Input
Amino acid sequence: MLLPNRKLPVRRALTAACHVFAFTLLTLPLAPRDLSAQRRSGPLVLRTPTSARVLALGNAGAAITDADAVFLSPAMLITARGASASVQRYGAAATHGSVSTISTVGGTTIGLGAQVLDWRAPSLPYGEVLRTGTTTLSDGGVREAGSQLVALGIARVIKGQRLGVALKYAEERIDAQSDAVLAVDIGYARAFGPGALSFTVQNLGVRPQLDAVRVPLPQRYTLGFGGGMMPMGEYLDMGAQVQVSVDGDGFVRPAGGIELGYVPIEGVSIVWRQGLRLPREPDESLVTAGVGLTVDRLSVDYSVEPMRGGRPVSHRLGLRLR
Output
């Protein structure tokens, strides 16, 4: 069955897409250009993408309404539903996986998620290993390494305000050495126009230590706006995410992405995603991209993350259930 005629013109979708990318481009000069001062923050699993959809949108997920909100913005759990799972390969040397689910008990929304990063570290001190970042995971190394994360998020509307908090247990292991930390995320969100506006403080807690080296948690303060897919024409839907993050060392990082969906019949959508971000990790790319297929409540997502420095392209595949 064909969808009913939609009254919003296609040019509004193009205008909104231009606004998202214009915002991201205009805020690029706010960030320091010296990437050699890359922060040695860990555990490394706290710096990896959380889902295929978010990665395709340039890692802009502060206002996302998927189950991955438990990792990104606990206040957004109130509007999030369903479950998600994804896996990403970094060449042949590293694999990252993520699962999350949302449930509601009375007026409280609860999110539960876990991430696992299996990788190999080079023969360098812990701080230098972290400085190379996630984009060098495909390089591998001689030391067995792993990072795990478990997150529990709770969100509730209090006096009309959406508030959320997430407690995260993160562990880093390299060879026989390991350390675990507790980190806290605090979030606030509210409806704003066709989407939601959110503010999140992430990764507050005690610093981890390995190889007798103590490093900071990757703290960040993020203001984001995003909305779900909205009809922009008879067969066209569009969504967008945009955010600005300030890392604990003052690095300002804008990011944004758009989603354009073709809806041939009701309940079916084919989506193209394009993301733009300011690179922070060494050899990180400026752009990301992906596609998705939604049939009723099930979505299959694929994203690609190009790497510079001659490294292989990283691919991520995900499933979402709404």
